[in-house]
Design goal:
heterodimer; A: 98 residues; alpha+beta; Alpha-Beta Plaits; four-stranded antiparallel β-sheet; 3 helices; 4 strands; elongated; B: 214 residues; mainly beta; Porin; twelve-stranded antiparallel barrel; 4% helix; 62% strand; globular
């Protein structure tokens, strides 16, 4: 087995490990207290500082924030909950999507 | 000089504090708040190291009471209730600074000054209620208690990013004031990081507030 093939296999294995521990893509967060557009700007500011986050959307009707990650990036649930708390809200549920 | 100062404040070059706008922001967040009404022009700039407290500078120009105040203000989020359809908050506000007399025998006099008060609010997407009080002690220059409350109603539920509109009534009570009850119907508009309020009280005096968060 030549060196490039071994390197490729390692890269694939490493990639699979990362994806398994940190599901990436889009995350939906049900949030308590999300009633005010002006105050919810804090969510954009706080999540916007994270390198892993590409963008977030805020749905005031359903009290859900949608977090879009950079390709191959994600945040674990504890970090998401902490960032939501820093923004002034409480997490009700976190759902991972694709 | 005083007329110029008032004019500058009134047109929003100075920034005022709104009783209902959050006195504590998110970690690393700056907020500039202005209040201009029939009695006072204020400027409050604060920084929140954490989501629990903020520290800032407060300037107040009490036109009828003939003094100004420069203070360091500390705001603390005592309690927040986040519910699926509403949010409620209790804050403690306090400040320490220097009061300066602007007329009569107090003209040019300075005195250490302090204030402390509590603020609370509840809101959902349609209704808003708030209450705030404060006691100010400035020694030989002035000392007074004030309290105010608001009721608000949103005629529509805007989506995130829309222009949001609230219709409100503010009632202020200053037992030692020349006019101890002031009623002010007002409109609040906000979009993105800008919040604007305009109203006219029962004596025909203008209220103009602006808040900017970044």
């Amino acid at each position: 087995m030549n060196k490039p093939l071994i390197t490729l296999l390692f890269a694939i294995l490493l990639s699979a490990t990362v994806y398994g521990s940190h599901p990436s893509g889009t995350v939906y967060v049900d949030v308590n207290g999300l009633v005010c557009d002006f105050c919810a700007r804090a969510l954009e500011k706080v999540f916007g500082r994270q390198d892993e986050v590409d963008a977030i959307n805020v749905d005031l009707d359903n009290k859900v924030i949608t977090i879009h990650f950079e390709e191959g990036q994600s945040l674990d649930e504890a970090t998401i909950s902490e960032l939501v708390a820093d923004s002034g809200y409480d997490v009700r549920a976190i759902r991972y999507g694709s | 000089m005083r007329t110029t100062l008032t004019l500058l404040l009134a047109i929003g070059l100075a920034i005022a504090e709104s009783i209902q706008a959050r006195p504590v922001s998110y970690p690393g967040g700056w907020t500039v708040m202005a209040m201009n009404d029939g009695s006072v022009n204020t400027l409050h700039v604060h920084y929140s190291p954490t989501a629990r407290y903020s520290l800032g500078y407060k300037f107040e120009y009490w036109r009828d009471r003939d003094f100004s105040l420069n203070a360091v203000q500390y705001n603390h989020l005592v309690q927040r209730w986040n519910k699926p359809e509403s949010q409620a908050n209790v804050y403690l506000k306090s400040g320490l600074g220097i009061a300066t007399g602007l007329a009569g025998t107090q003209d040019g006099e300075t005195n250490a000054a302090a204030f402390v008060g509590i603020a609370m609010d509840w809101e959902d997407r349609r209704f808003f209620v708030s209450y705030e009080n404060r006691y100010t002690e400035a020694g030989k220059i002035d000392a007074f208690f004030q309290q105010s409350a608001r009721l608000g109603w949103a005629p529509y539920e805007g989506d995130y990013g829309d222009l949001h509109t609230w219709l409100m009534v503010q009632v202020e009570h200053m037992p030692e004031g020349e006019h101890n009850i002031t009623v002010t119907p007002l409109i609040r508009l906000f979009k993105d990081v800008h919040l604007l309020e305009a109203g006219l009280n029962n004596r025909g005096e203008l209220l103009f507030n602006y808040v900017f968060r970044y």
